[in-house]
Sequence to fold (362 residues):
Amino acid sequence: MTEFEWKQERIRNLMREKNLDALWLQRVSSVSWATCGAAPYINTATTTGAVSLLITPTARYAITNNIEAVRLQTEEQLAEQGWEFRTAVWHAANPAIAELTRGLKLGSDFPVAGATDLTNELARLRANLTPEEGARACALGGLCAEAMTDALRAVRPGQTEFEIAAILGQHAQARGAQPIVNLIATDERIFQYRHPLPTAKQLERYAMLVLCGRKWGLVCSITRLVHFGKLPDDVRHKMHACAQIDATFHAATRPGEKLSAVFQRAVDAYAATGFADEWHLHHQGGATGYEPREYLGTPTANDVVAENQIYAWNPSITGVKSEDTLLVGATGNTVITATPSLPTFAVTVNGQTIQRPAIWEV
Fold:
């Protein structure tokens, strides 16, 4: 069974399970997933794309306008996959969904009046990668790691956060990885904000670079920090603690483990390192795939870790953060955004030594 056939089977299984006659996919992430990596967007910031997909038990349709149809049919290979195009001129509404779903029980990956909302179910399907997707994720992780390494080496005091964001974005985009999240903080802003949009502030000594890169619809996440001059002892201590917590996440994220149990081990690590309350200040990450996080780890998460999923955990303590994307394997995990030329901590968890990022001191 090909990757495309596997996905079509999972979609129709979900439809049967929910007693639905049709499924309408509008999210960029869902369309990329269902088409094995097509780019269905024009505006990269939108949740829904320039094409939506409708699947019934006997047919599959691509609904778009005359501007996008040719590119989607040829470059994105939707015609080769057998999608039947229902195209309207750009200045008129497309009646295809109303016509094709009249009288049918409809499900959707987006809240739609009269349709069953399958947002959560589709996120779980997207998070369970095929071997082909796992290989693409590994390739993407390598591109993001290269982009981050080159960007970090180009950072200099006096640059604005806007300039640093441009450097990171350029290195990612040059490798074909869209920087759909590009966060930069310098100096005191690292201590103030967990999601620091870049500003005109100039770097003095300390910078944090955060990247979520997208290619083939998949997303990998990575954070690195650089400090010019001697690192203050309290920041070094926090980063070492953060690495211990991150390594705990990595060691616990194994097939068959309940996500709430993985999360609790990390919460315990926060307490053991002396930072018991810091996990309340920011989400800790979770399963990724075609969204930066398909779903989060929480104290009550019922999801179970599966082989060939990818996870991006991002524990943080005020002023520091540790983040990579890992692929869950049958015998062990692989950090697919590893940056071997940058400094790391060797952290031991339950007898297992795990390398986690340290702050690069220049």
Notes: Residues 194 and 282 are 7 Å apart (CA to CA). The mean pLDDT is 97.
